[in-house]
Design a protein that fits this description.
Elements (H helix, E strand, L loop, with lengths): L2 H9 L3 E2 L5 E10 L2 E8 L8 E9 L2 H8 L9 E2 L3 E9 L11 E4 L9 H4 L27 E3 L2 H4 L1 E2 L6 H5 L4 H12 L7 E4 L3 H12 L5 E4 L3 H10 L3 E3 L6 H8 L5 E6 L6 H8 E9 L24 E4 L6 H12 L9 E6 L3 H11 L6 E5 L1
Parallel strand pairs: 10-11, 10-13, 11-12, 13-14, 14-15, 16-17
Antiparallel strand pairs: 1-2, 2-3, 2-5, 4-6, 4-8, 4-17, 6-7, 7-9
The structure holds NADPH dihydro-nicotinamide-adenine-dinucleotide phosphate and zinc ion.
Length: 374
């Protein structure tokens, strides 16, 4: 059976055009600053790959940086989206552990697991800087009636029974990115930390740091729902960046000592200076924020111990892949992490993708994260 015939049978929503080519509907970045719908060819499923039909999708602030700030450069008719739970509609002949009909969590980062970078312990950079970030960056993303996943055995994870696909959709990017902030910073039991930004990523940074044993947790943000949920995840002190510099507030509340670790999940290129000013010597600053604009990051010389502070400044892209997804899913199964608190807007139907992305762009004050259920 040809690939085109099998799709027609499985999906019933694909259009066979005049010359017999199968096409799909997708929501795309047409060019910097412009989004819209497009008909695109069905992707080829290679021997190690899978094709997946989404059942829950979420837009990401990264899509907003990519489209409206042009942060990774010009793209033409690139399908957006990298957060999806879906049903497998085709698997390649070498795929061992997944079959058609399986419902899977798809990580935002889908590395090539045989790459040298993956062997070195940095799969997110497989093939070069940020090379594991394929969806909605270097290949079509998941806002499509069907999308392609490379290295299916290495990258997909079965959705555990009893887990809501919308909750699981938070595992694709929000949870691993937020948790990455603690991992990169090396959060330890009793550490005092400051999480800058408490959108969905920062909220997962708070939750991840608390799971790792953080003590006092400052959380920086203003949207009321985000503030309420940050407290539920374990923030002990809330700071508004609109009430003065973050560092001046944290230093005042810590008798001038500062915090052990700063986790950055919001702000801009100037946020690093604030972070360095309030972190202790030998502390660490970790960034998972996607810096969409600005050419340089400035480090304040004196507060950086005139270059000898032992303050560790790092940025990291989330870890992708199946093992990470399975382990994070186990936190939902065991009840140790409740991602449903992040979901403030539930939209339904494929056409709602557009509305969900515009919500993410406009950030109404009651929003944390929208999900589209298909
Ligand atoms: P949101 O826009 O929802 O949250 C941003 C947070 O930063 C809000 O709490 C906001 O406060 C706060 N903020 C805004 N301006 C400042 C400022 N000047 N100083 C301090 N805090 C500020 O974003 P998301 O949580 O969805 O995403 C966070 C970042 O993570 C984005 O840049 C996103 O692209 C990136 N990202 C990175 C990934 C990775 O793998 N590294 C993957 C996914 C996302 P307020 O409450 O006032 O809105
Ligand atoms: Zn994202």
């Amino acid at each position: 059976m040809s690939s085109a015939t099998s799709f027609s049978r499985l999906l019933g929503m694909i259009v066979l055009d005049k010359i017999g080519v199968v096409t799909l509907k997708a929501f795309v970045m047409k060019k910097i600053g412009e989004v819209g719908w497009a008909e695109k060819p069905v992707p080829e499923c290679g021997p190690l790959d899978a094709l997946v039909k989404p059942i829950a999708l979420a837009p990401c602030t990264s899509d907003v940086h990519t489209v409206w700030e042009g942060a990774v450069g010009e793209r033409s008719d690139l399908t957006l989206g990298h957060e999806a739970v879906g049903e497998i509609v085709e698997v390649g002949s070498f795929v061992k552990d997944f079959k058609v009909g399986d419902v899977v969590i798809v990580p935002a980062i889908t590395p090539d697991w045989s790459s040298l970078e993956a062997q070195a312990g940095y799969p997110m950079h497989s093939g070069g800087m940020l090379g594991g970030w394929k969806f909605s960056n270097i290949k079509d993303g998941v806002f499509s009636e069907v999308f392609h996943v490379n290295d299916a055995d290495g990258n997909l994870a079965l959705l555990p029974s009893g887990v809501d696909p919308a909750d699981a959709c938070m595992l694709c990017d929000m949870v691993p990115t937020g948790f990455q902030a603690s991992e990169v910073a090396g959060v330890e039991y009793g550490d005092s930390i400051c999480v800058i930004g408490i959108g969905p990523v920062g909220l997962m940074a708070v939750a991840g740091a608390v799971l790792k044993g953080a003590g006092r947790v400052f959380a920086v943000g203003t949207r009321p729902n985000c503030v309420a949920v940050a407290k539920e995840y374990g923030a002990t002190d809330i700071i508004s960046y609109k009430d003065g510099t973050i560092d001046s507030q944290v230093l005042k509340m810590t008798d001038g000592k500062g915090v052990d670790k700063v986790l950055i999940a919001g702000g801009n290129v100037d946020t690093f200076a604030e972070a360095v000013r309030m972190v202790k010597p030998y502390g660490s600053v970790s960034n998972v924020n996607y810096l969409g604009s600005g050419d340089f990051i400035k480090i304040p010389r004196a507060e950086w111990g005139v270059g000898m502070s032992h303050i560790d400044i790092q940025g990291g892209l989330m870890l992708g892949g199946r093992l990470r997804m399975e382990k994070l899913a186990s936190l939902l199964v065991s009840g140790r992490l409740d991602t449903s608190k992040l979901i403030t807007h539930r939209l339904s139907g494929f056409d709602a993708i557009e509305e969900s992305l515009l919500l993410m762009k406009d950030k109404p004050s009651d929003m944390i994260k929208p999900v589209v259920i298909l």
